[in-house]
Amino acid sequence: MSDHPNLQPYADAWTQSIESISELVRPLAEGEWNRATDCTGWSVRDVVSHIIGIECELLGDPRPIHTLPRDIRHVTDEFSRHMEIQVDVRRHHTGPEMTSELEYTIIRRSRQLRNEKRKPDANVRHVLPGWPEVTLERQLMLRAFDVWVHEQDIRRALRMPGNLDSPAALVTRDVLVEGLGKVVAKRAEAPPNSAVVIDVSGPVEFMRTVRVDKDGRGTVSGSPSLGPAATLSMGWETYVRLACGRVRAEAVAEDIKTEGDAGLATAILNGFTVVP
């Protein structure tokens, strides 16, 4: 990675987060692997299986040949069917089998990243099925983001909070903020020539303004707005859970404060999810 140092922060963030997951799950009793997470239909075991599966595919391993049971209710389309294969194939693996495969996968991927010689702008496969190619730099950014989000899924399930301000948390902030323009301008249909402020407090603290131009296009900036149509304030963990589709706004209403146009604020919160 020394040939391309601008990739290193994403590799370091990914490493810190995925090794934290390994440390979290290593001592789990067998029953704890079955604890439900905020990912619909997925247990702690399933989330770890998903992480292993994605990393193995990026290593070039062939996808498992596996037929899904017909009674998995959260599999509703081709995207969820694709993602479920790597999960269901490991559903009966024991805790030791899971931790062993995770640790081996981390070793292999870490070696791959250390030996990476491609340039940051090299086109590579997206981490999601059917999506267009992305640059290598973007792919690593998305891996740090995805692994951290799933680390938090596991931590909430196990009631073991932590790493809310880790390097990958900051990467996650940047990824999620990118989607605010679409949420405010397209989904919530904020009026042209208006602005909306998102104010986040806690371990990762930031404020962003979404400005909607005369043509209805939204752009995000860090500069304040003197007269926003609406201001939404919330804690960092609530922001992550909403933006990642882990919870609905009414379930965390006590941690959300809105000012200004109440209808617009509600529309923004109803369309806040920015990940598939």
Show the helix and strand layout.
Blueprint: H1 8-25, H2 44-58, H3 78-88, H4 95-114, E1 123-124, E2 134-135, H5 136-158, H6 167-177, H7 180-187, E3 194-201, E4 206-212, E5 218-221, E6 230-235, H8 236-243, E7 256-260, H9 262-270
Parallel strand pairs: 3-6
Antiparallel strand pairs: 1-2, 3-4, 4-5, 6-7
Characterise this structure.
The protein is of the alpha+beta class and 276 residues long. The protein folds into two domains: 5-172, dinb family like domain (Four Helix Bundle (Hemerythrin (Met), subunit A)); 178-270, SCP2 sterol-binding domain (Nonspecific Lipid-transfer Protein, Chain A), CATH 3.30.1050. Helices cover 45% and strands 12% of the residues. The chain is built from nine helices and seven strands, in the order H-H-H-H-E-E-H-H-H-E-E-E-E-H-E-H. It has helices at residues 8-25, 44-58, 78-88, 95-114, 136-158, 167-177, 180-187, 236-243, 262-270, and strands spanning 123-124, 134-135, 194-201, 206-212, 218-221, 230-235, 256-260. Strands 5-4-3-6-7 form a five-stranded mixed sheet. The longest helix is centred in the middle third of the chain and has 23 residues, at 136-158. The protein is globular and about 55 Å long. The mean pLDDT is 95. Pfam families: MDMPI_C, MDMPI_N.
